[in-house]
Structures are given as C-alpha cells and as structure tokens.
Design a protein that fits this description.
The structure holds 2 protein chains of 2 kinds. By secondary structure, chain A is mostly helical. Helices cover 67% and strands 0% of the residues of chain A. Chain B has 12 helices and 25 strands. Chain B is globular. Chain B has a 5-stranded parallel sheet, with helices on one face. A 4-stranded parallel sheet of chain B has the order 13-12-11-17, with helices on one face. In chain B, strands 22, 23, 24 and 25 form a 4-stranded antiparallel sheet that branches.
Chain lengths: 101, 425
C-alpha cells in the first residue's frame, strides 16, 4: 500500500511537472519562431546572421534590452526588439539558451 | 537528438496513445492524425516542416506540382543579371528525408470540405485529411484587361510575379532591348503580393540599364495614389541614383493593354514601352477559390489568426498571400513563413486536444535591393489583439532603414539563406 501510494504521488508529480514544462517550453518555442526566419531554425544560423542558439540566458536578455534602449546599434534589431516585452524576452532567452549551437 | 526525446516525454505526459506513436525516427508507427498541405511555397513548406519537427506522430502529406522551390524574394536580382534562377531555387529533399513529409507531385484540383477529402489532377482517388492546410499563393486576374486575355498576349506582356520561367523570359526581353528603350512596369491597386517588390524591380532594372544601356528609361505606372511601401527611401534613391532614368507616375489606372505594340492604355493617355511588364490584380489561388474559401472582396480568404482556420470551412487552414491580411501585415515571403509556423503549432494542438497559443506573434523584415549591392528594409512586429480578434502591430516597434547600405545588402543575402533553410531544411 505504502509503495503504491508513493508511486502514485511520484507519478502525479511527474505528470504535473511535464505539463508545466510543456506549457513553458511551448510558449518559448512558439515565440522563438519569430526569430528563426532570420536567425535559423532553433536559432542556428545557416549563413551570415548571428547564431543565437546556446547563448547565455542573461546575455540574450541584456542584448535585447540594449537594442531596445539604443545602447547597441543595429540595422534591424532595434526595431524588432521593441516589439517584445520583458516577459517575452525572458521566455525567448530561456528557449535559445537551452538550444545546442 | 535531445529535442526529439523531449518531444517524446511531452507527448507521453499527455496521452497514452502517443507512447506508441513517438519515436526518434521520422517515420512513426501510430499516427495521431493526418494533415494534408496544398502548396510548398514559403507558407506551406514551413507548415509541413514544423508539424513534423514538433509532432513526428502526425502524418503530413504535401501536394505540390513543382519539383523546385523558386523564391520570389531575390528574383528581381535575376532580372538585374546578378543572380541566376538556379541560385534562388532549392529542392524539397530535406522535407522528405529529414522530416518524413510525404510528397505528391501534382496539383490539387478540388476540396470536399464535408468529407475532408482532396482530389488531385492525376486520378480520382480522394486523399483524406483530419486537417487541411492550403497555401495556394495568388492567381492573376485578367478580367479587367481584355487585351491580355489570350495566352499569346500574356507571353508577350509578362508579369514575372511568380518566380520561374517568366523571370527568365523578362530578363531576355530586357537583354534584347536597345539602348534608349523604355521599360514600363504597371502596379495594381494594393493589396498585392510583395508591396515594395515593384519599386525594387524598377531600381534593379535601372541599375542594369545604367551599366549596360545608359540612355534607357524606367517608367513606374502605379494604380495607387502614392508609393505603397518604403516611400521616403525609394523617392530618395530614384532622385539620387537614377535621376532622369526612373520616372514615377501615381494614379495610373490601367484601362487596357495592346500586347502587339507594347502599349498600355491608362485613363488619360497611352504609354508605349519597349518592354512592358504588367502586374495584374491578384486574388487567392485557384484551389481556394474553387472550394468557396474566398470571402473578402471576391479576392481573399478570411481566417482566424489564432489558428489560420478558414472563417467558412472547418478543419481547413489557409496561409500566405491568399489570406485577407490583418492591418499592416504585408503579403510577403517572410510573413508566409511566420504563418506556417503559427499554423503548425495550432494544428498540432487542435489534433492533440491541447490548448492553442492565445497570444501568437509574427515578425516581418522585407529587404529591397536598390542597386546590386545596396539594400533598404522595412520591419514590423505583430501581436494578436484579443479584443479586435486580429493581429496588430506592436506600438513603437518596427520601422525603415535610415538609408541604403551595403551592410544591409549582406544581411539581405544572409536573410535569404536563413529563411530558405527555415522553410526547407
């Protein structure tokens, strides 16, 4: 009895954990598709553009904010970065930092 | 393949059926559902790839008559002589081998929405679907141009607005033209595919004339009352780089065309050109029209922007240039690529009875070459507005280049390579 109850709890925790991860992952995954047209699928560039897959989470957040503020100059990215809020930038950074480069 | 393994865990957490269906190989034993995609351009090929990337347990069949993907973006560089058609073309090999998309090389001719079936030209065997994605592009409407009704007239007065044989044919016309000749391009009323495209074309043909036929002229005859896209940048380029060569005439509504003499009849005068390039008005592709999916202005298909599902046909999703775009959303290859990804996510969620993304986003960057090296862009970011039930641009985002530059020229070429990879490989 004890064992099966413990097993149930473990199973439930795992299911809930997976559900939660799914939601967060999917959100980052979907947002990241707005970058992949230029930066490549999963942020792995095919040519010319910077690869953003595998960059550190904090670095991505900082660069996006620098594009927004104008601290980092750009041809296009200052205009694109302004389209995303802090929470979206955090989700993007989490997604790309988790990708293999 | 960490990604695939994660996908496995996700699906396993949601449904026991998925356990049997998911594996790291592209071909699965048990399918969660069948998606049929009509049209392997920027929108359709992207949707097919991403469904298989994110949900290998969903079966995807592509119906496409062409052997090659030929990019409309960059095709004005073929007219300019900077690129060959082969350099802007690619095969569908990776969609087949890497993602396991089934290909039927044929045209879809009919859709039975009630029975969820598609018929192709080759035979009468229906192809069944759980969800259908249509990305048919545009068809050209010659109804209002009597002089261009016949195929022979259309072969002489080209549009070259679908990259392929017409692109090469127009290049040949330009090469054959004598120095001192006139190239005229006629632009239909917006909306049409690729808003800045005609103005880019005028720049690139002028760039070619400057080098090869310097006494020649480029005449832009625009049905619209003003330059539709990137106006300040194009106006400055025409003045600075192509003075006395490019002439812009707004409000030039087309009445008819005499293909034999290369004459375009406008409301108030006739204009004769040595090379005449008429972009006819456009509407959603034939297969969408045949299925009764055109619901706006007799030209475009209305969709729900959360899922890209047709407003009149259940389980049918429409993407790319064929849809009635949201405000400030261009009919562009980049947008179509975004439609493909957002639709892929929604279709997977719908098939698996999972929640759909309630806050989808889209970005767009359209690069235009103004010489063979210098480029300008327009960029935008779009979010779903829950009150307006459509996509709107995010306030404060987007914009134009400050000026044309070679640096943006390099980025434009890199953009092309990356987006082609995002669509196809």
């Amino acid at each position: 009895m004890k064992h099966s109850a413990f097993g149930m709890i473990v199973a439930l925790v795992l299911v809930f954990a997976h559900e939660r991860v799914y939601a967060e992952d999917t959100r980052g995954r979907d947002l990241a598709t707005t970058c992949s047209g230029c930066h490549g699928t999963h942020g792995r560039s095919a040519s010319g553009m910077p690869t953003i897959a595998g960059l550190e989470q904090a670095y991505i957040v900082k660069q996006m904010n620098n594009f927004k503020s104008g601290a980092r100059s750009a041809t296009v990215m200052h205009q694109i970065a302004k389209g995303f809020n802090d929470e979206q930038i955090a989700a993007l950074a989490a997604y790309f930092s988790a990708q293999k480069n | 393949m960490a990604y695939t393994r994660r996908e496995f865990i996700r699906s396993a957490g949601v449904s026991a059926v998925a356990l049997a269906g998911c594996s790291s190989a592209p071909v699965t034993k048990k399918s969660m559902g069948r998606v049929v995609v009509i049209g392997a351009g920027y929108a359709g090929a992207t949707a097919a790839k991403y469904i298989r990337l994110w949900a290998p347990d969903i079966d995807v069949t592509m119906i496409e008559p062409s052997e090659l993907f030929v990019s409309c973006p960059m095709s004005n560089l073929v007219l300019n002589g900077s690129k060959t058609l082969a350099e802007i073309s690619a095969g569908y090999g990776a969609l087949r081998s890497k993602y396991g998309v089934n290909f039927i090389r044929d045209s879809a001719v009919a859709i039975d929405v009630a029975k969820r079936q598609v018929r192709i030209a080759a035979n009468n065997d229906p192809i069944s679907y759980d969800r259908l994605i249509i990305a048919p592009g545009v068809q050209f409407v010659y109804d209002g141009i009597p002089g261009l009704k016949e195929a022979t007239a259309q072969e002489r007065v080209l549009h070259a607005w679908k990259a392929g044989p017409q692109t090469i044919a127009l290049r040949k016309q330009l090469e054959a033209m004598n120095d001192g000749g006139v190239f005229a391009i006629h632009i239909p009323k917006a909306p049409y595919r690729c808003p800045p495209g005609p103005y880019e074309r005028a720049c690139l043909i002028a760039n070619y004339f400057k080098k090869a036929k310097p006494k020649s002229k480029v005449l832009i005859l625009d049905s619209n009352e003003d330059v539709v896209s990137k106006k300040p940048l194009f106006m400055k380029i025409w003045k600075d780089l192509y003075p006395n060569m490019i002439e812009y005439r707004p409000n030039s509504e087309l009445v008819d065309v005499d293909a034999a003499t290369g004459t375009i009849k406008l409301t108030f005068d006739d204009v004769k050109a040595d090379v005449l390039n008429v972009l006819p008005p456009m509407k959603a592709g034939k297969v969408a029209e045949g299925a009764g999916l055109i619901t706006a202005n007799n030209r475009w298909c209305e969709v729900d922007f959360l899922t890209f599902e047709s407003k009149v046909a259940k389980n049918v999703h429409i993407l790319g240039d064929a849809i009635l775009a949201a405000p400030a959303m261009p009919k562009s290859g980049h947008m179509a690529n975004g439609h493909g990804k957002n639709c892929a996510a929604a279709v997977i969620a719908l098939i698996k009875n999972q929640p759909i993304n309630a806050t989808p986003m889209l970005t767009n960057t359209c690069y235009s070459f103004v010489t063979d090296k210098d480029v300008i862009h327009i960029a935008s970011v779009h979010r779903y507005d829950d009150v307006k039930k459509t996509m709107v641009t995010v306030e404060g985002s987007g914009g134009l280049s400050d000026r044309a530059s070679e640096l943006e020229g390099q980025y434009a070429l890199a953009w092309a390579k990356n987006i082609w990879a995002d669509v196809l490989s």
